[in-house]
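Hi R.,

Quick one: here's the DUF2231 domain-containing protein sequence you asked about.
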Amino acid sequence: MKLNYHPPHLMLVHFPAALLPMDLVCAALGWYTHHTAFTAAAYYALAGGVGAGWLALVFGFVDLTRIPAERTAAHRTALWHAGLNTLVLMGYSVLFFLQWRQSALALATGLLLFGKAALLLALVVGNYLGAQLVLKYRLGTIDEN
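And here's the predicted structure, written out as tokens:
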């Protein structure tokens, strides 16, 4: 799916790719300094990252269904990318829901920071696979063939 040659998935993925690391950094700063402003910033970065992530996931699924069957390597990479990033997004969604149910200003714990760091590492791997789809397999480009 494209809007004037621009795939919505490729336009949207930059928001969670930027906001979810910001969530970890701000949560760590809040934990370290005990300043609730960092904790609030982390919460809103998490909310934006999760919201944009689910929107990107919908458009990514549409793109996944449009990969030609004969492009097996690209399809396999796309399935790994989609599966890993869906699991990561589900993990971040659970964290957001738990924080939303308690308080947006509750300081992070060491365990929560470790979990967010693990999710972020998985997100980096998933995003690397997504970059492979564009750079190596030329999916989502104007000369997509």
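The longest helix spans residues 36-65.

Cheers,
M.
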